[in-house]
Amino acid sequence: MPDIQEQKQQIRRQALQLRNSLDTETYLAGSLKIEQRLLELDEVKSAKVVHIYSAMENRFEVRTAGLIQHFLDTGKTVVVPVMEFGTGRTLKHTKVGPDTKWHTNKWGVKEPEKGEEVDPAEIDLVILPVVAADEKRNRIGYGKGYYDTFLEETDAFRAGLVFEINIVKSVPAETHDKVLDVLITEKRIIGR
């Protein structure tokens, strides 16, 4: 039997293939439904400081541009991750606003060029990208460990955004893996 890392890699590969097979219309409609479901949650409505990923739309990650704009429009403090390459698996948590200038990092992720750094302890809500997950709310990301490291630093409510096609029977979990509070798909909220 393959070890946990090999099992995760296989699930990740299959999930990315499925996600990349979505047509644009299905991708956009699914992202919009996920966004609407997320905004229904009391934890999202009450959050003051929101950490949210900047979606790689060219890789069909669930879109977040509309969510970022909604949170800014409703007066929330919006924080996006900036990867600290060469420092291990760490993220800098950078505040963004309507005038933020963005650039694309070496992995194709849009990040703010500069901005005020926010302490993870101040964050109320973390919205994470998910490659695959199971109904127990175990998640597989891209395998670099950035979010595992970050989630050790915060007790914020954790919501993962994922398309229903990437919900699998079981994700092998390790001790450092963090279970999410909810998973939001275009069809349901898992964990409610």
CATH architecture: 3-Layer(aba) Sandwich
| Name of the level-1 CATH class | Alpha Beta
Q: Largest sheet, if any?
A: 7 strands, mixed
State the CATH topology: Rossmann fold
Dominant shape: globular
Query: What is the H-and-E element order?
Result: HHHEHEEEEEEEHEEE
Q: What is the count of structural domains?
A: 1
Which value, in Å, is the CA radius of gyration? 16 Å
Total number of beta strands: 11
Q: DSSP helix count?
A: 5
Structural class: alpha/beta
Which blocks of ≥5 consecutive residues have pLDDT under 50? none
Distance between the termini: 34 Å
Q: Write out the CATH superfamily name.
A: NagB/RpiA/CoA transferase-like
> Level of helix content?
25-40%
Instruction: Give average pLDDT, whole number.
Output: 93
Strand content: 15-25%
Which strand order do you get reading across the main beta sheet? 3-2-1-6-9-10-11
